[in-house]
Each structure stands twice: as C-alpha cells, then as structure tokens.
Amino acid sequence: MVKSVAIACQGGGSHTAFTAGVLKRILREENGDYEIGGLSGTSGGAICALLAWYGLLNNDKNKSIRLLDSFWRDIAANSFLDILLNDWIIWVSKFQGIIPMVNISPYDYPPWAQEHMRSILNKLVDFDDIGMLINESSPDLLVGAADVLSGKFKVFENSEINADAILASAAVPTFLRAIHIDGKVYWDGLFSQNPPVKNFIESAKIHEKPDEIWIIHINPQQRHYEPVSIKEIDDRRNELSGNISLYQELDFIENVNKWIGAGYLPGDRYKHIEIKWIGKLKENRDYESKLDRKPQFIQDMMNHGEQQAEEFLRQL
User: What is the pLDDT of residues 242-260, one digit of tens each?
Assistant: First the structure.
C-alpha cells in the first residue's frame, strides 16, 4: 500500500541547505512505497518546501531538485563584496552581547536583502501560475508566520502562497523588516509554528490526513555538554526556542494516537499518524553558522542532508 506522507521542514537559516539536500534525495527515490501529500515549512524551511512543492505541482520532481539547487546557488555569497558582507554579519553576530555594539534597526537601511530574496523567488517560481496548477490531487503547502500585532499564528496555505508569504515566514526581525500582507504585519514563523504540523490533520477529512509525518529537524533536541559561556548559552537558548512549538504540536498528535488506540476517539473521524524524524545535523553548529552563506558551507550542509536522507530511506 502506498502511504501518504507529509514532510515538515523546520527553519534555521543557512542550516536549511541541509533540508534542501534531504528533499533532493527523497525526490530522487524511485522505489519508495510513499507519495508526498503535503509539505510545510518555516523560514528557510518554507523556501525549501515551496521549491519542492512547485515542482510537484508541475508533476516534475526533477524540476523540484533543479529549483532547490538554483536557489542555494543564487543565495550563496559568491561575489567579492557579498563575501565581505557575509563575513561582517557573522562577525557582528558572534560578538553581539559580548562586546558593546550599536544596535541598528532593519528600518534604518534599505531592504536590500529582502528585495534580493524576492527577485530570486520570482525568478524560480511563477506565483501567478500556482492557482491554475492546484487541483484536488495536488499536495498541500503550509507556510508558518507570526502576526506581529495580534500575536496570533498564521499559516499560509496553497493558493495563498506568494512571494510575500514566503518573505513573511523568513522575516527575522533583527535583520529584516516585517512584511505587510492585507493590512497585517508578519515576522518570522520561528515565533509561531516551526514548522506547521497540526494543520495537516486539523482541517483535513479522514481520507486526506497523512499516514506519516516526516520531520526534517534543524534545531537539535539534545546537547552533550552544559552551556556555560554567554555564547554557548545564547546558542542553546536559540535551539530550544526554535523547538518549543514543534514539540507541542507533536505531543498533541501523539496523544491523539494514544486516544485512538484506547478507543476514546472514533476511527471514522480520526486516524493514527506515525511521526518520523529525518536526519541529524552535525553537532557544535553555532547560531552564527545559520547566517553563513559561504558556497562551500552551503554545499557541505546540502551534501550532509542527502547522506542523512539516504540513511533514513534505507531504514524505512
């Protein structure tokens, strides 16, 4: 029996090149007994999910792979000036809070980074074409963002997806301006759902719910040493905050599974959904490396993602 799988892509800046590698390997698999029924993502995970989804809407997995490669090649720091900028951002971030520095609002300088991101997305994805490509058999795409003013979670779904929705999900407030959509103001989805998971099952009919949810995990759950320096504490705090919403949503699904098994919930309205984790990032990746756009670093992360996905598929 072919299983319906939803793939949830956690956010994490340049670390989500790992996610791109995982998705590429999954999309190349020809002997799997599964089909991708949905994708979700936040921040960099939302970008990877979008590119994989857009290829699937075109019934072309190879297109998905090409788009993932193209995006990470385009976003990498390749020019001399971009390399200098990349190194400066990493240096400033590394010593933030350790030595006195002037805090600069992203509203104090032009939104070059977001406009560059927008141009790359528009080059790779024809957002005007999405509504015509979606049909009843199309996989879903869920993108998480946070409504700055109301404090509520926002999930952009399917035909709502456009460049603004993706930029909203990736709007890290210390570096990028908030994105305005339909009179509302949005920040990075790391403050809401990282990534959306419950939405795969809350509004779906019983036959549309996935059989399995695969989590591409970026922020490590465990550390093998106690953080003691300011730098280590900040890194670990960032990891934990990026996992809070994800574990809460997964706990909800696992509790529903228990209630189904115990007979407390009717089987015609609820189904058991298996949760599986894909891959493991190498340890000792600090927060600054999430900002690193060096081509070799990005390629290493992508290669590692492909290797971890290979191991995951071998164990299925």
Answer: 778 888 889 989 999 999 9
Burial class (CB in 10 A: 0-12, 13-18, 19+), 135: exposed
Q: What single string gives the DSSP state of each residue in 255-306? A: HHHHHHHTT-S-TTT----EEEEE--PPS---GGGGG---HHHHHHHHHHHH
**What is the spatial distance between Cα 122 and Cα 126, in angstroms, rounded to a whole number?**
6
Which position has the token pair 């998480």? 144
Q: Write out pLDDT tens, residues 7-44.
A: 999 988 889 999 999 999 999 997 778 999 999 999 99
- The residues that bridge with 41 in the sheet, in sequence order, are 9, 143
Close Cβ partners of 300 (under 8 Å, ≥ 6 residues apart): none
Rounded Cα distance between 85 and 231, Å, is 22
Can you name the residues that pair with 3 across neighbouring β-strands? 34
* CA gap 201, 208 in Å, rounded: 8
Residue type, 294: K
Reference 153, options 245, 241, 218, 215; nearest CA is 245
Phi-psi sector, 20: left (phi>0), alpha (psi -120 to 50), beta: alpha
Tell me how far apart the alpha carbons of residues 19 and 12 are, in angstroms, rounded to a whole number: 10
Quote the Cα angle for 54-301-287, to 5°. Answer: 105
Sign for the pseudo-dihedral over CA of 89, 91, 95, 100: negative
Of 25, 6, 60, 79, the closest CA to residue 275 belongs to 6
Q: Which residues pair with 35 in a beta bridge?
A: 4
CB atoms within 10 A of CB 304: 18
Measure the CA–CA gap between 169 and 188, rounded to whole angstroms: 5
Q: With contact defined as beta carbons under 8 Å apart, do 279 and 308 qualify?
A: yes
CB hemisphere CA count around 40 (13 angstroms): 28
What is the spatial distance between Cα 188 and Cα 170, in angstroms, rounded to a whole number?
5
